[in-house]
Amino acid sequence: MSQDRTLIISPNWIGDAVMAQPLLQLLSKKNPSRAIDVLAPPSVAPVWRAMKEVDNVLVTPFRHGALQLRERWNYAQVLRARGYADAYVLPNTLKYALIPWLAGIPHRVGYKGEMRYGLLNQLHHDDQPPRAMVPFYAALADAPRDPLRASLPRPALAVSDEQKRLTRGAHGIALDKPLVVFAPGAEFGSAKRWPAAHFAALARAIVLENQGTQVALLGSPKDREVCDEIVALALAASVRVLNLAGATRLDEAIALIASADAVVSNDSGLLHVASALNRPVLAIYGPTDPDHAPPFSDMAKSMSLRLECAPCRQRECPLGHHACMRELTPDMVWIELRKMVG
């Protein structure tokens, strides 16, 4: 390719990819004529395809966690031929910093991470007080040690009306009725999950007060079991809930969220997708800090009991009581959600 291009090497998590999007907005503003490509794992690629700043999404051929040095060298030669002027390496691992170095990309930017001196030649140091994820990634648009920007753009994704319509139809969701999406999963661990019984009770409150409203559960195949439990508990209360966990591709889940009237989510990747699509979002936090990665929607509410033991940032409750989630009751959440769906 003849024109200079920018390469973004994606994080491995959906939420992190979403929160890196303002970095692309800043880079596009700095170099409006420079196309941006993203190298991303298959599990995250659909998120980048929903960003208007992205020209091409290149899907990584590497196995998770494997060095695969020969494969990285071979792929780097493919990147070399595309003519990149700069690369922004968002994961902190050594193996991802190898790729732009092997590809001969002249300007290579990222955090020090795993002692990546030499592999990166614009090295940032995360030695400031802990920053929220959006400013953490956005800082890479500036020189190291530059003052943090006073204001930053919000993460933004876009889905066409046609894609929303087709995806609703493909999954049996009526176009003429309201849709509330629940995202009850959390890849991080069970501590971040609001109890299934609470989700079921919330579904009952929504449907009883808003007749005809559809409630759909989204998540990965790993979330299918907890979503089945929610469906069974809701059905026992005579409320029908549609379980789509594991039944949608990520691009379909993004389209369904884009068409939702409101989204209720644990601190997960789908929460940040909903926020970037500017849907009304109610975010539930327990063991994680609601200030670290909050939703940015025009209509958003972060709920946390902020107990003394939180945020513990543990995958499972170290005290065994999971009070940060159990004691955040469906009634408390419904008071706030009612303002969005009423």
From TrEMBL:
Catalytic reaction(s) noted: an L-alpha-D-Hep-(1->5)-[alpha-Kdo-(2->4)]-alpha-Kdo-(2->6)-lipid A + ADP-L-glycero-beta-D-manno-heptose = an L-alpha-D-Hep-(1->3)-L-alpha-D-Hep-(1->5)-[alpha-Kdo-(2->4)]-alpha-Kdo-(2->6)-lipid A + ADP + H(+)
CDD domains membership: GT9_LPS_heptosyltransferase
Keyword presence, DNA damage: no
Any one GO biological process: lipopolysaccharide core region biosynthetic process
EC number, as in UniProt: 2.4.99.24
Superkingdom of the organism of origin: Bacteria
Cellular-component GO terms for this entry: cytosol
Record carries keyword Metal-binding: no
Class of enzymatic activity (EC top level): transferase
Gene Ontology terms for molecular function: ADP-heptose-lipopolysaccharide heptosyltransferase activity
A Pfam family recorded for this sequence: Glyco_transf_9
Keywords: Glycosyltransferase, Transferase
NCBIfam families (alphabetical): heptsyl_trn_II (TIGR02195)
Similarity comment text for this entry: Belongs to the glycosyltransferase 9 family.
UniProt name for this protein: lipopolysaccharide heptosyltransferase II
